[in-house]
Specification:
Blueprint lengths: L1 H5 L1 H31 L7 H24 L15
Protein backbone atom coordinates (compact mmCIF):
# COMPACT_ATOMS: atom_id res chain seq x y z
CA UNK A 1 0.00 0.00 0.00
CA UNK A 2 1.33 3.40 -0.95
CA UNK A 3 0.22 4.98 2.33
CA UNK A 4 2.33 2.48 4.31
CA UNK A 5 5.37 2.85 2.04
CA UNK A 6 5.27 6.65 2.34
CA UNK A 7 5.11 6.72 6.17
CA UNK A 8 8.31 5.60 8.00
CA UNK A 9 6.42 4.69 11.19
CA UNK A 10 3.92 2.54 9.29
CA UNK A 11 6.71 0.91 7.30
CA UNK A 12 8.57 0.07 10.52
CA UNK A 13 5.41 -1.34 12.14
CA UNK A 14 4.69 -3.48 9.09
CA UNK A 15 8.29 -4.75 9.06
CA UNK A 16 8.13 -5.67 12.75
CA UNK A 17 4.85 -7.52 12.18
CA UNK A 18 6.33 -9.49 9.25
CA UNK A 19 9.40 -10.53 11.25
CA UNK A 20 7.23 -11.39 14.28
CA UNK A 21 4.89 -13.50 12.18
CA UNK A 22 7.83 -15.33 10.62
CA UNK A 23 9.31 -16.08 14.06
CA UNK A 24 5.93 -17.17 15.44
CA UNK A 25 5.44 -19.54 12.50
CA UNK A 26 8.90 -21.08 12.88
CA UNK A 27 8.46 -21.48 16.64
CA UNK A 28 5.03 -23.02 16.13
CA UNK A 29 6.42 -25.58 13.68
CA UNK A 30 9.49 -26.45 15.75
CA UNK A 31 7.84 -26.51 19.20
CA UNK A 32 4.80 -28.54 18.16
CA UNK A 33 7.04 -30.94 16.23
CA UNK A 34 9.33 -31.45 19.21
CA UNK A 35 6.43 -31.86 21.64
CA UNK A 36 4.77 -34.43 19.40
CA UNK A 37 7.94 -36.50 19.06
CA UNK A 38 8.96 -36.26 22.74
CA UNK A 39 5.49 -36.75 24.16
CA UNK A 40 6.14 -33.98 26.72
CA UNK A 41 5.18 -30.35 27.15
CA UNK A 42 7.88 -27.67 27.51
CA UNK A 43 7.51 -24.10 28.75
CA UNK A 44 10.69 -22.00 29.13
CA UNK A 45 11.44 -20.68 32.60
CA UNK A 46 11.57 -16.95 33.29
CA UNK A 47 15.37 -17.17 33.43
CA UNK A 48 15.57 -18.61 29.90
CA UNK A 49 13.31 -15.84 28.62
CA UNK A 50 15.36 -13.20 30.48
CA UNK A 51 18.65 -14.49 29.05
CA UNK A 52 17.22 -14.55 25.53
CA UNK A 53 15.83 -11.01 25.82
CA UNK A 54 19.15 -9.81 27.26
CA UNK A 55 21.04 -11.23 24.28
CA UNK A 56 18.62 -9.53 21.87
CA UNK A 57 18.94 -6.23 23.76
CA UNK A 58 22.73 -6.52 23.68
CA UNK A 59 22.55 -7.00 19.91
CA UNK A 60 20.51 -3.81 19.58
CA UNK A 61 23.01 -1.89 21.73
CA UNK A 62 25.99 -3.16 19.73
CA UNK A 63 24.30 -2.27 16.45
CA UNK A 64 23.42 1.18 17.79
CA UNK A 65 27.04 1.84 18.75
CA UNK A 66 28.27 0.48 15.42
CA UNK A 67 26.00 2.83 13.50
CA UNK A 68 27.13 5.83 15.57
CA UNK A 69 30.85 5.09 15.71
CA UNK A 70 31.62 3.28 12.45
CA UNK A 71 30.99 4.55 8.93
CA UNK A 72 28.11 2.11 8.34
CA UNK A 73 25.84 4.64 6.67
CA UNK A 74 27.15 7.56 4.58
CA UNK A 75 26.84 11.02 6.04
CA UNK A 76 24.03 13.07 4.53
CA UNK A 77 25.13 16.17 2.76
CA UNK A 78 22.83 19.19 2.77
CA UNK A 79 24.91 21.16 0.29
CA UNK A 80 23.40 22.31 -2.97
CA UNK A 81 25.09 20.78 -6.03
CA UNK A 82 27.09 23.29 -7.98
CA UNK A 83 25.98 23.78 -11.58
CA UNK A 84 29.05 24.54 -13.65
Amino acid sequence: MASVRANPQSLFAASVMVVGAFLANRLNVSITGLEASAGARYVPSWMEVAVTMSIVALGFVIFSYAVRLLPVFPKESHEQPSHA
